[in-house]
Write a structure and sequence with these properties.
single chain; 258 residues; alpha/beta; Spore Coat Polysaccharide Biosynthesis Protein SpsA, Chain A; 7-stranded mixed sheet; 9 helices; 7 strands; globular
Length: 258
């Protein structure tokens, strides 16, 4: 008997025609490995097309028509990373949900370890960090260093590399966390709200593979300004949040609250 009933592997996509086939193939390999290992009983792949202007949406629809394990949600207007992740997390049907980028910043085989960690440590989130980030370039590496230290200070998050696109979460936790960010701050918001509500987060390191296809826009000045604005707003909102009782945080644990 599998430890988890189902897993949804979710990709937010904008103009990822060059990477979509490789991303879905990697998700299938990871899902098959998890089923074989007895960690999950089934899996599906969810693509959220954020109003792409290339062939991403068409290709996603064709793949979904050919394989029932694939589903697609289309945005009529571009909602950026935060809006796309919110759509994906709300649409995911699995008992557990893994979200990452279509350019595959890590080996999807690491998903087997992530699910195992979620189970063994009875965590609500597994958030990976990169061992070596030098492939990003000096400017982006500097931005990330300042950003992560600022977030750690403001939200008391003792975590590394919080914006890295590798988050494995329990569906039951997502029902308790209201995400508001429309931009790249979405990852930190998820972690900060979860911690404030009393959910458990564990981390592990993975090898990082910089993007070789497609376009990244996460270091633009407009993105940075939006992140700072959302950061200050979240800090204010978190003051009113109280930890949830264990019976709410761990409905999957029959011993919770006893």
């Amino acid at each position: 008997m599998a430890h988890f009933e189902s897993l949804t592997i979710f990709y937010p996509m904008w103009n990822e025609a060059e990477t979509i086939e490789r991303a879905v193939a990697a998700a299938f390999e990871a899902g098959d490995a998890l089923v074989e290992a007895g960690e999950i009983a089934s899996y599906d792949v969810l693509i959220v097309d954020d109003a792409s202007t290339d062939a991403t949406g068409k290709m996603a629809d064709e793949m979904a028509a050919a394989d029932p394990r694939i589903s697609v949600v289309h945005h009529e207007v571009n909602r950026k990373l935060g809006g796309t992740i919110k759509t994906g997390l709300a649409s995911a049907k699995g008992e557990i949900v893994l979200y990452t980028d279509a350019d595959l910043p890590f080996d999807m085989a690491e998903a087997v370890k992530a699910v195992r960690l979620l189970r063994i440590y009875e965590a609500d989130i597994v958030s990976a960090y990169r061992f070596d980030r030098t492939g990003e370039g000096a400017r982006r590496l500097a931005y990330s260093y300042v950003y992560n230290h600022l977030v750690q200070a403001l939200f008391k998050l003792r975590l590394r590399d919080m914006n890295f696109a590798f988050k494995l979460v329990r569906r039951s936790m997502l029902d308790c966390v209201e995400l508001k960010s429309e931009g790249s701050f979405i990852d930190v918001e998820l972690l900060a709200r979860a911690q404030r509500l009393g959910f458990s987060i564990v981390q592990f390191g993975v090898d990082y593979f910089p993007r070789t296809r497609g376009i990244s826009t996460l270091s633009s000045n407009a993105v940075i300004v939006k992140i700072v604005r959302e950061m200050l707003q979240l800090r204010s909102e978190l003051q009113s949040l109280e930890p949830l009782p264990a019976s709410v945080r761990q409905p999957w644990n029959t011993d919770a609250g006893q």
